[in-house]
Known about the structure:
The protein is mainly beta. 3% of the residues lie in helices and 55% in strands.
Amino acid sequence: MQNIEKPGKKVAVRVIVSIKDKSIRIRTLLSGVIKAGDELVVDDETTGEAYPVQVSSIEVGDKRKDSAPVDEIKTIWARAIEEVVVKIAISHRETTESIEMKVPGDREFIIGEKIKVDSRELKIIRIKIRDSGFKSRKGVAVKASDIKRIYAESGVREPRRFSKAGERIVIKKRESVWSLKNKKTD
């Protein structure tokens, strides 16, 4: 005989959803145990809107926990993952350019893959994962909703610069403002 789990009692839970640069409060019915990292679809009981979200943290009483049964949860903190903004850092020898790209949250980016952004072709070198480390092995795929930043190369190389005498000119990186402020002077 199969062991069929009975769905638990549904409880109204407050969910604060971050969508881009704003937050909305929703009351939704949930059951079971909720864990940080879970992907849920929360229905706003008042407006009828549904939001695919990823749970960032769970508030139980005055403490944050990694998981809890819904009847103990005070607030679920989540971020919308239906459409996300992926930040891309493009390396140009001594400088780095930052751009953003809106994509569906379930779109996968693969290290080594060439992507097209604003009529530019970029090659993904590595990916910074939210609340984790980096992925840099060629062929590894990461969902857009899990990405903090993509590091890419434009494939366009700046020409090497030469002086009138034929010597190669090397552009040196500037010291950071922090190191200039703390540098000891004689």
